[in-house]
């Protein structure tokens, strides 16, 4: 029983030269892996007929499916469609349903049908058209019995995801389900507070006891390390295999283990606050709202998150954050005293059970000898009082802000634990 | 004169199966493109000796340089290093300076040198060691006169970027500069308010007047479209070529053109606010702090940004946002009246020249027939009064929040323009 093998090809000069971050490949890979397919390679290639046909030829013998994104849409010269027609020996024909859809699309926006738009209704004769309900260029499916099948998608992420979800995933689910392939399942354990190499040393003694088909990957994040357990095998037994592996690892991870159900750090925060019926408010200086944005990125966060203050300027810290002018002039904005006053005041003013305040030197400028770039003070106020801690991160502005948000969440989790 | 061709290989099962977003490839590609190299392919491959050697063999004939990331570090079995030794026919030798560094690294963290750590000092005999000053596994450079050179880097982004910046980029700059290769230069024009296909139609008439070596790519973003002009050629003339192309395009883009110097939308906002000496404050409901985070991601934002209110709950809108309880009960939180009251109040309370308020239904829940998911009201208050506008975005929470932030910035820019 071998796996259903997939290759993902991203077509686009703007991805190749670094102008655009390739989120499509990750999204598609995640969907495929969830369905039990095995992504064996990803490639990014230029917008050229020769590159496209050479890549399809090269990958064809070693996979069941090639999924391409990009090279379709109103400002491309339809190179991808031309290359596919050539690869499969097809003619180009006008697809009626796509033509009708494009007429309605143009009319709804008060525009005429243009030559450029009309060209997007031309498809290779052996392809099945996959409707694009959020853009103009349709997707294509070449379902083949011999050699790799090919799915062709637009590069715009929303359009690609819509076509994948509506048309490709159901087809792929059926291919994998009825073809007798092995499946892959995962379990992700979220840990914090123990460095990656120490975690590796901790689990080393039991590695030989783990089932042979379980693979462990260490995925470091901001202030966290995820352990990704993956097992491939028979659909009826893989979950039990993962349960067994998780049970072996859990005691070795101890208090560093925050979650065993593939949660983000902020989802652990939400779960624990809601379980313990605690509300939360924030006061953010150097993070500027990033913590609030992270918290509210999770649907349902209104069940515990009230909001907070973006106190970027010192004046706002004083007028709306309860920080005394003398505190600022004596200790500065990046200090234990300032974050303690902020968190205490916000907790009282907003009426939340917990309040967390962050103030630091994000960089690249603003550092001093005593408070170099990367210095961040964080305070958490709850019914027991206030605790503050100083961190020293790095020299990179984005890293400092991201780590400060993670550190703030970890400090709140600590207080919830000991409440 | 041909280009210096580069292939980027990302090694890692966690990238292949979608668990991890591949930001390394984009970062490296951007650096290479800036130096004038031509990224001809990117691949993501599994953590296996056979995949690594097969990929190096496959790419070797067609590029000057292969850059790999991943497969190095304390929890990998050093497969990458083993595969390279095999590919180049090297022995593994212990690098003294790396060994010393690892001793100090362990000691500084109060740990012993372990066997796992020590193994990272083993390097192929023909490699030049590239020091890793932020992690443990060193990078490697195989500089070859015949066949592709190979650079091997760890997968952790901070470590990879540090080694690239300190060791690889200087070496690569020299290779390209002394090898008589053509260079690539770019100009990025940021536009808003005109759909991609209309922009394409607008510039169509002058496309034939553009210099032949200029390539234009349309890169759609949240509420914006970037036009990326790229020219390859002689280092002395490419910038003039781009100036000429930009001058031809500018009149056709009209008021849709926000920037011709490769700026992000929020950087345009910062530049214009500082030029016009206007301060800004925000009130964010559904975006939860994302707009403040975006604004403060730019160094120097304290010159114009004061801070604001994350008014996620209705109570916070009333108690700290100046929204009247009757307004909420009559019109609801997502309404023209609510955002007008918020923006007016925050402007007065914070003493800013401009205040922007955002309130919407981010989704996936919370939508109604009158206010479906994706409905967002945004108001901007300045000395002339308040203007509010309603948007209807999509069904995706993240997209709605991201677009709301972009729409808010565009509304502020509009007010600055007409001030």
Overview of this protein structure:
- The structure is a homodimer of 419-residue chains.
- With 419 residues, chain A is of the alpha/beta class.
- The first copy, chain A, has 3 domains: 5-178, MoaB/Mog-like domain (Molybdenum Cofactor Biosythetic Enzyme, Chain A, 3-Layer(aba) Sandwich), CATH 3.40.980; 183-259, Alpha-Beta Plaits (2-Layer Sandwich), CATH 3.30.70.2860; 266-418, Alpha-Beta Complex (Maf protein).
- Helix content of chain A is 41%, strand content 24%.
- Chain A has 15 helices and 17 strands.
- A 6-stranded mixed beta sheet of chain A has the order 2-1-3-8-7-6, with helices on both faces. Chain A has a 5-stranded mixed beta sheet with strand order 14-13-15-16-17, sandwiched between helices. In chain A, strands 10-11-9-12 form a 4-stranded antiparallel beta sheet, with helices on both faces.
- In chain A, strand 13, helix 11 (290-296) and strand 14 (305-310) form a beta-alpha-beta unit.
- In chain A, helix 10 (265-275) runs parallel beside helix 15.
- The relative contact order of chain A is 0.08.
- The mean pLDDT of chain A is 92.
- Chains A and B meet through helix 1, helix 2, strand 2, strand 9 and helix 8 of A and helix 1, helix 2, strand 2, helix 8 and strand 10 of B.
- Strand 14 of chain A pairs antiparallel with strand 14 of chain B, so a sheet runs across the interface.
């Amino acid at each position: 029983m071998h796996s259903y093998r997939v290759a993902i090809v991203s077509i686009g000069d703007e991805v190749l030269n670094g102008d655009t971050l390739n989120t499509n490949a990750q999204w598609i890979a995640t969907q495929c892996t969830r369905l039990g397919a095995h992504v064996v390679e990803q490639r990014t290639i230029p917008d050229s007929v020769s590159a496209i046909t050479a890549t399809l030829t090269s990958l064809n013998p070693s996979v069941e499916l090639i999924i391409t994104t990009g090279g379709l849409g109103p400002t491309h010269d339809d190179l991808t469609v031309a290359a596919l027609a050539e690869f499969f020996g097809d003619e180009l024909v006008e697809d009626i349903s796509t033509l009708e859809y494009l007429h309605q699309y143009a009319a709804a926006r008060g525009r005429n049908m243009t030559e450029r738009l009309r060209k997007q209704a031309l498809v290779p004769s052996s392809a099945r058209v996959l409707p694009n309900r959020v853009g103009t260029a349709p997707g294509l499916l070449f379902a083949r019995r011999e050699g790799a099948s090919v799915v062709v998608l637009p590069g715009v992420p929303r359009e690609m995801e819509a076509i994948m979800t509506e048309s490709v995933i159901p087809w792929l689910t059926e291919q994998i389900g009825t073809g007798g392939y092995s499946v892959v399942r995962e379990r992700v354990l979220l840990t914090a507070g123990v460095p990656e190499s120490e975690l590796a040393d901790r689990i080393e003694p039991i590695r030989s006891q783990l089932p042979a088909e379980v693979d462990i990957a260490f995925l470091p994040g901001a202030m966290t390390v995820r352990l990704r357990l993956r097992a491939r095998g028979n659909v009826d037994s893989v979950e039990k295999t993962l349960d067994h592996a998780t049970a072996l690892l859990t005691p070795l991870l101890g208090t560093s283990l925050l979650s065993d159900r593939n949660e983000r750090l902020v989802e652990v925060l939400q779960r624990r606050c809601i379980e313990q019926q605690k509300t939360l408010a924030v006061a953010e200086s150097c993070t500027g709202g990033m913590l609030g944005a992270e918290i509210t990125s999770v649907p349902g966060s209104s069940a515990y998150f009230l909001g907070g203050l973006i106190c970027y300027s010192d004046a706002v810290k004083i007028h709306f954050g309860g920080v005394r002018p003398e505190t600022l002039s004596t200790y500065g904005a990046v200090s234990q005293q300032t974050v303690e006053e902020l968190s205490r005041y916000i907790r009282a003013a907003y009426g939340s059970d917990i309040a967390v305040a962050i103030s630091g030197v994000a960089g690249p400028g603003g550092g001093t000898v005593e408070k170099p770039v990367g210095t961040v003070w964080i305070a958490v106020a709850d019914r027991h009082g206030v605790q503050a801690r100083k961190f020293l991160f790095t020299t990179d502005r984005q890293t400092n802000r991201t780590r400060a948000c993670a550190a703030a969440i970890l400090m709140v989790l600590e207080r919830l634990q000991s409440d």
